[in-house]
Each structure stands twice: as C-alpha cells, then as structure tokens.
Amino acid sequence: MSTLTFRAATLADIPALITLVTSAYRGDASRAGWTTEADMLDGARIDAQGLQADIERPRSTVLLAERAGALVACAHVADEGGKGYFGMFSVDPAQQGGGIGKQLMDAAEAHAAHEWGVPVMQMTVIDIRDELIAFYERRGYARTGIKKPFPYGDERFGIPKRDDLRFEVLEKPLAAQS
Can you tell me the distance from the alpha carbon of 5 to that of 38, in angstroms, rounded to the nearest whole number? Predict the structure, then answer.
C-alpha cells in the first residue's frame, strides 16, 4: 500500500468530504465500518455550509488523508479557546481497521501543537459509544466526566432515533512543540 499524505481541505473538497463523512456515519453504507451511528441517528452528518465555515475560519483546519491521490479519511482540527479540538473524524468504512485513523489522529495532534501551540486536544463523543471511546482511550484520551446535552431538535447534528443521547468530553495532553 502507498503512503498516506496529509493536506488541508479547500472549498473544492467539500463534495468529496460530504460523501466520506456520510459513508462513515450514516445509512447502510456506514455499517461496513465500526464507526456507524446508523442505529442512533438519521439525517445528515455534515453539510456544505458547515464545512465551508470550518475551512474558512481562522485557527481551523479540515485535515485530509489521501492515498495515491484518493481521499480516505478526514478530521476537523481547531483551536477553541486555547485547547485543541478534534472532530468530524472519518475513515472510509471499507478501509477502517488498517491504521489510517491512527495516522490521521497523530497528524491532527501534531498540527494542533505545531500550528497553535495548544497544550491539550479535546473531543466530544456520544457517551454510549463504548467501543469508540475505548479506541480513543487506547490513543491516550481520557474521559473527563464532563457531559454536554445532545442538541435535540437541531437537525445539523442528525435526527435522533433514541432519547438518551449526550456527549462526553475526552481529553489528551499534547507533547510540547518547539
């Protein structure tokens, strides 16, 4: 297999990003991987307007992982109040389990530390996603115990299929960068 390359997304990448993120989280196609939210949420996972805002805002990068020029994974990384934010983490379901996600996480953490000098990376995960949380814990993230309500009624986050969803904040210290 060829090596992964990483780059910042541009507005021209938005259609491919919507396809990738949707395939990783929504609908039957997402069931090919283990990150699916299809049993918890329907509707869109991301839209063009939100992606454009993430791409254009200062101290924010939508990081792409490509193999031989083809998009295989992405993540949104940003400086939010002096802490790194990691989200929209998506790997092509057919390629999950092969180390792409781990490499992208490493690249995203390095980017946040180098570009913005943030001391920690945070993310929010739906707290009933035990297998996903365990994956992040193996990558050095810890549960903070901080819970945030799921934004029921805001379809930008999906259409819930259950009434017990909430987010938990996970956090990882980043190595100091010189």
Answer: 29
Question: What's the chain's length in residues?
Answer: 178
What is the pairing mode between strands 41-42 and 159-160? Answer: antiparallel
Strands 83-91, 120-126: parallel, antiparallel or unpaired by DSSP?
A: parallel
pLDDT string in tens for the chain (178-residue length): 569 999 999 999 999 999 998 887 655 654 555 555 656 666 667 889 999 999 999 999 999 999 999 999 999 999 999 999 999 999 988 888 889 999 999 999 999 999 999 999 999 998 888 888 998 999 999 999 999 988 788 776 777 777 888 889 999 999 765 4
Q: How far apart (Å, rounded) are the C-alpha atoms in residues 143 and 84?
A: 16
- Residue 166 corresponds to which tokens in the numbers above? 């909430």
**Residue among 47, 50, 55, 94 at smallest CA distance from 72:** 94
The token pair that represents 62 in the structure block: 């939508």
